Amino acid sequence: MPIARAAKRATARLGAVVLAGALLAACGSSDSSDSSDSAGGKVTLNVDLFGSFGFKEAGLYEEYQKLNPNITIKQSDTQDEADYWKSLQTRLAGGGGLADVQGVEVGRIASVTQQQSDKFQDLKEFGADKLKDEFAEAKWSAATTEDGKILGLGTDVGPEAMCYRTDLFKEAGLPTDREELAKKWATWDGYLELGKEYKKNAPAKSAWLDSVGSLYGIMIGQEEERYYDASGELIYDKNPAVKEAWDTSVEAAEAGLSAKLDQWSPQWNQAFAAGSFATIPCPAWMLGYIKGQAGDGGQGKWDIAKLPGGAGNWGGSYLSIPRAAKHKEEAYKLIEWLTAPEQQAKVFQKQGNFPSSTGAIEKIADAKDAYFSGAPIGQIFGDAAKEAPVQVLGVHDQNVMQQITNALSEVERKGTSSEKAWGTAKKGVDNVIG
């Protein structure tokens, strides 16, 4: 989710909200021993995630506990990935309050491998190196340090598409066929033009898209180099791809196409069911989130079409084990099982989180989703995953993205000029990176 999951993965990827106090209470202790929770050999594994990874929803915890009666799994969630990461950094620094399993969004994985490798368990000690061929190369290598430590097993990736409300399109007099729409918005200019048509006859209290932040995020996910180049140099302020995504997002804001909703906010959540926007750029992990927020009343009203401007990736996550985890060996067995092809395929079929396991990708190629009007999600997201660029990840990827989307929110909500907002974004990046 990421982003989230995503972010995010969500990233969101983003499920139930849990208050910070409850989150910390749910996490495991900092005792690094692998002792059992009781004399009877029972072990409680605490899994701390952001957003909706889909494990609980797909029934995987229940299945694992039946296969392993001595294991009890307790999951805690934080809706906003930025809040989750901030809390995780505090606990890593202090060494206490850490879970047995911690989720890591793809935009943070470079920070883990390059700056915090001493805080996380090398999974190679449990035999993780034997799993390399089961994962997409880009996914595997991103969680591997220069000296060969394996610091996470991949869950999902975030191939991108466009989700849209067919009922709102009909009311506005727009076509609803996914193939026809893919042709009309083959480019981002075409997407904005269709949005302007929608605005002329839009249903009351309905905008073209949820926020320009989501538009920016999905566009920048189509690029190989975004905030850093392959040498590790920070290039966001001179990268033409960032400027194009920024300018397009500003144009959408100034044209009044956005519902001006902060992603992951309560108002944003409510908007899925209320019909407050007609389109939302959606990585695969967003499907489960839409279902959760729109509810049963949204079934058959949503559909999915190919993304404007080509394939991209937004989000995706890893499961890692802190060095201070209480039950590292049991935790490893769990995350190996959760990220195996069979389980990744089950999560996709239930939640839409697109697998990073090559074996799972083969299993879901023909999958369709009744909730999204029978959309061939296996094909749509499978094609996007194959065509998406392998992205260069930097230590502060997620921080840079957050500052830029915060600045775009000023354009969207306050009418701040593009030039002034970009200056704010640059100052924010300088402050965060130091």
Salient structural properties:
single chain; 434 residues; alpha/beta; nine-stranded mixed β-sheet; disordered N terminus
SS class: alpha/beta
The helicity comes to 40-55%
Largest sheet: 9 strands, mixed
Beta content comes to: 5-15%
Calculate the terminal CA-CA distance, rounded to whole Å.
27 Å
**How much is the radius of gyration in Å?**
21 Å
Please give the number of β-strands. 9
Low-pLDDT stretches are 1-36
Task: Give the helices and strands as they follow along the chain.
Answer: HEHEHEHHEHHHEHHHEHEEHHEHHHH
Average predicted local confidence, pLDDT:
90
**What's the overall geometry?**
globular
> What's the tally of helices?
18
Keywords: Signal
Organism: Streptomyces sindenensis
InterPro entries: Bact_solute-bd_prot1, SBP
Pfam family, one: SBP_bac_8
